[in-house]
Design brief:
Layout (H helix, E strand, L loop, with lengths): L1 H6 L9 E4 L10 H13 L1 H4 L3 E5 L5 H8 L10 E5 L2 H13 L1
């Protein structure tokens, strides 16, 4: 998904993005999977840019998301990520970011 987004003809570094992971079962994500995601972000940091990413994880699942990402190294990136349990709040935040 990330690679397709960055290769899209209309992509610009720093574009605010909303990722809906509310249907994703991230309880089965391995440390190896996390490392692959971290390496993707490190390799593509300039292409991603300094925008904002809203990640929707679903009702009552934010704590599980934080626990998952507490494992291993942190991602050092230009963009800012915020976690949401409700898509409408994520959408509102992204729309505000887009106006700045």
């Amino acid at each position: 998904m990330g690679r397709n987004l960055l290769e899209h003809k209309n992509w610009l570094p720093g574009t605010p993005v909303l990722f809906d992971h509310s249907k994703l079962d991230f309880t089965q994500v391995s440390k190896t999977d996390l490392q692959i995601i971290r390496l993707f972000h490190q390799k593509n940091d300039t292409k991603i840019g300094n925008g904002k990413s809203a990640i929707v994880v679903g009702e009552n699942r934010a704590q599980l998301w934080y626990q998952l990402w507490d494992e291993g190294d942190k991602i050092s990136a230009l963009n800012f990520v915020k976690i949401f349990e409700k898509i409408n709040l994520a959408h509102d935040w992204i729309m505000k970011c887009n106006k700045v």
